[in-house]
Structures are given as structure tokens and as C-alpha cells.
Inverse folding.
């Protein structure tokens, strides 16, 4: 299937690792001109080398902490300088860690800023341009709405779902869609190093909780992300689509 992505411009945040990394590669393979963003420059340059080696255009590398004051505008300016416009925004920068139920305000502020507030602000930096050009795709990597305990990211990702739904209704008439994808367990830095560091525990968790029986790979997210980024997905808007090997237990 031709996804009609050749020449489309895309920014992938959180591209130094995991889902963002895998997504940048597949968007580039489909012909997108890509900008990749994270804090670790060496990993972004390695990704750029890998993409260039496939014969695709070398991605623009943007080294930026998304939580810094003024980051959304600085990122927008760098993207417009490098790519000229932005058709596709993949919001993959984020992170989750369980916190004590009575964690302090500073912990909540940090987690909400990374996983909701800066994602919202970065998106808003690009929405006017997308509306004007009558095409835009925003895809948010979010997370489970089944908290196992208190986790700031759960609340932040739920906020993304509610905000994205509202925004989708405002901008849909201009050819802009915004969708959210909660991953289940996808092999990535945070999953392998922090959430499930023990391989035996990982295997037991997968057998007990995931009908597929194993953790997914970044590509398992990236193929759907790439379809949603394409003009072919014009009628899918404001959705929350779980990609989790069947792990989620609720029908709706
Ligand atoms: N993997 C899963 O199973 C899973 C499950 C639920 C939700 N998610 C969500 O899916 C998204 C991607 O997850 P992942 O597992 O692929 O993550 P990952 O491998 O841990 O990578 C996180 C990415 O975000 C970037 N990042 C983190 N903080 C940043 C900051 N302040 N500024 C700029 N970049 C920042 C990291 O790059 P640098 O460190 O180089 O900045 C890295 O590229 C996240 O939002 C995560 O919460 C993933």
C-alpha cells in the first residue's frame, strides 16, 4: 500500500531510544523528511547515520530538553529552519515511574510537565501551521489508564487523552487529526532498564498478563503510527488506540 508519505515532514520527539527511535526509521523509510529530537546528541547522530545509510535523507538532529522553558518555540523554529514546515508530529518523549502515593508536589510537577504540559505546548506551537496548510497529524504516545498504584505518568497520559479529544474536535475541519496510542509493554530503555530489569520477571509478567505472550518491539507501534501519519488515515481522529498484545482487560 502506498501511504503517500513521500516528502512529508515529520518531527519525532524521544527519538534517541525506543518507540521514537523505531518510528523515525520507518517514517524515513516511507519517504518522510524527518527531524529527530531528544537530549542525547550521540544517540540522535547514530540514528541519523543509520537512516542516511539506508539512502534516505539525513534527519535534522535537534538536541533539546522538552521541559525547558521556551522549548516549544525553540523546537518549532529549528524544525521550520530544517524542514520548512511540519506535517507530522510524533510526541514520544516521556517517561513513567511509580511514585509513593504521597509523593511531593515537585515530583508531580516534574511528571506532569514532561508527560502532559510540554507535549501540549509543543503541539500548540505547530497547530497554527498545520491548520493553515490544511494538513496535520499529531500522534501521542501515552500510556495505560489502568493504574496499579500511584504513578504521575498515568494521570498525565489521561490528561493527554482528554485534551487531545477536545483538540481533535476543534481542528478536524482543517485536515488536522490528533490521536493517542497507549503502548502496553514495548521493549525500550525504560521498560528494559527501569520497569522490568529482570529477564525472568519480564517473561513471567508477559505470560501472566499479555495474551500475545511477549513484550512488543518499537516497530509494533511504529507501523500503526506511520499509517495514522498518512493522508489515508484522514477519518481517524480523536481516538485512543491501544497497542499492547491484548494486555488491556476492558472492552471499551
Ligand atoms: N515502552 C513502553 O512499553 C511504554 C509503555 C507505556 C507508555 N510508554 C510511553 O511511550 C513513550 C516512549 O516510550 P519508550 O518506552 O520508547 O521510552 P524510552 O525508551 O525510555 O525513551 C524515552 C525517550 O524520551 C526522551 N526524553 C525523555 N525525557 C526527555 C526530555 N526531558 N526532553 C527530551 N527528550 C526526553 C528520551 O531521550 P533522552 O533521554 O536522550 O532525552 C528517549 O528518547 C513515552 O512517552 C512513554 O511514557 C511506553
Amino acid at each position: 500500500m502506498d501511504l503517500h508519505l513521500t516528502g512529508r515532514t515529520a518531527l519525532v520527539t524521544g527519538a534517541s531510544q525506543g518507540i521514537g527511535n523505531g518510528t523515525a526509521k520507518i517514517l524515513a523509510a516511507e519517504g518522510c523528511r524527518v527531524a529527530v529530537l531528544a537530549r542525547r546528541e550521540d544517540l540522535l547522530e547514530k540514528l541519523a547515520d543509520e537512516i542516511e545509510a539506508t539512502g534516505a535523507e539525513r534527519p535534522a538532529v535537534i538536541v533539546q530538553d522538552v521541559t525547558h522553558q521556551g522549548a516549544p518555540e525553540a523546537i518549532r523554529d529549528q524544525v521550520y529552519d530544517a524542514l520548512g514546515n511540519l506535517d507530522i508530529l510524533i510526541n514520544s518523549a516521556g517517561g513513567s515511574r511509580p511514585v509513593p502515593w504521597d509523593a511531593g508536589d515537585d515530583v508531580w510537577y516534574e511528571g506532569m510537565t514532561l508527560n502532559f504540559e510540554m507535549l501540549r505546548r509543543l503541539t500548540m506551537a505547530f497547530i497554527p501551521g498545520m491548520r493553515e496548510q490544511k494538513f496535520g497529524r499529531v500522534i501521542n504516545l501515552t500510556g495505560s489508564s489502568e493504574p496499579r498504584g500511584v504513578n504521575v505518568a498515568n494521570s498525565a497520559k489521561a490528561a493527554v487523552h482528554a485534551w487531545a479529544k477536545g483538540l481533535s474536535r476543534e481542528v478536524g475541519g482543517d485536515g488536522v487529526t490528533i490521536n493517542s496510542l497507549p503502548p502496553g509493554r514495548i521493549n525500550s530503555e525504560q521498560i528494559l532498564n527501569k520497569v522490568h530489569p529482570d529477564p525472568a520477571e519480564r517473561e513471567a509478567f508477559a505470560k501472566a498478563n499479555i495474551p500475545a505472550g511477549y513484550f512488543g518491539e518499537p516497530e509494533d507501534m511504529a507501523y500503526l503510527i506511520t499509517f495514522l501519519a498518512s493522508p489515508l488515515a484522514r477519518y481517524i481522529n480523536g481516538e485512543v488506540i491501544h497497542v499492547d498484545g491484548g494486555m488491556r482487560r476492558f472492552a471499551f
